[in-house]
């Protein structure tokens, strides 16, 4: 395989106007090799869109999977975020959290399904995030069961509010969550304090599995950084793509 093909990608930049957020939001949309509007594609929605593309190198990863492992091509939607309000949008107790979730479910998904040939089937729609991005992704899957059932969690910030939300559910057999956590993440410094992400992920895994959620869970050496997560994306994407 000519490795230069891995780096040839089509990424469309879009702006969506959100009534829920009261502002415009930038999107990065990866169109796979051989993209054809007459076909239909699975879709992966990513929080921290700029980071997933720049630091996670998700477009290059998807190209490799398509060319080398015959994975079905998918469209990837990166939703950008202003880092200064990221916690307020992604944390369950954040002041913009409810509005952001409504934007995602009621505005973003319909917009993509109107403008791009993404499949509207629940099982063909994935949602991914790192840290608090994984938190809001899991909450979206819990709160909008008709939209999301497949979640990729890179070192999710799963604290008490998220555990309480999971505990409200009796049966999560509809959910499939792929989780990875770095064993060096026992003392992660955030703007809300220092946390043991390993313990938080272990507890969350138990809560999900107790409710019959299908969990693919990996613990391995790694820090709370994109240098770790970038290398985990291939196997996590393959969990959900044919």
UniProtKB/TrEMBL annotation:
It comes from the Bacteria. PANTHER family: ENTEROCHELIN ESTERASE-RELATED (PTHR48098), IRON(III) ENTEROBACTIN ESTERASE (PTHR48098:SF3). Pfam families: Esterase. This is Enterochelin esterase.
């Amino acid at each position: 395989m000519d490795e230069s093909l891995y780096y040839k990608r089509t990424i469309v930049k879009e702006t969506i106007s959100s009534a829920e957020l009261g502002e415009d939001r930038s999107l990065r949309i990866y169109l796979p090799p051989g993209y054809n509007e007459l076909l239909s594609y699975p879709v992966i929605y990513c929080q921290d869109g700029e980071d997933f593309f720049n630091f996670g190198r998700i477009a290059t990863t998807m190209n490799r999977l398509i060319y080398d492992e015959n994975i079905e091509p998918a469209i990837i939607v990166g939703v950008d975020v202003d880092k200064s309000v990221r916690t307020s949008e992604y944390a369950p107790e954040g002041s913009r959290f409810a509005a952001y979730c409504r934007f995602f479910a009621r505005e973003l998904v319909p917009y993509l399904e109107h403008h791009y040939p993404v499949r509207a089937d629940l099982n063909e729609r994935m949602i991914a995030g790192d840290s608090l991005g994984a938190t809001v992704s899991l909450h979206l899957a819990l709160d909008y069961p008709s939209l999301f059932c497949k979640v990729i969690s890179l070192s999710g910030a799963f604290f008490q509010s998220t555990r309480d939300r999971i505990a409200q559910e009796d049966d999560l057999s509809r959910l499939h969550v792929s989780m990875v956590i770095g064993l060096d993440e026992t003392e992660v410094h955030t703007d809300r304090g220092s946390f043991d992400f390993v313990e938080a992920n272990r507890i969350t895994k138990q809560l999900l599995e107790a409710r019959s959620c299908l969990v693919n869970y990996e613990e391995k050496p790694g820090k709370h950084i994109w240098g770790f997560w970038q290398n985990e994306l291939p196997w996590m994407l393959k969990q959900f793509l044919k």
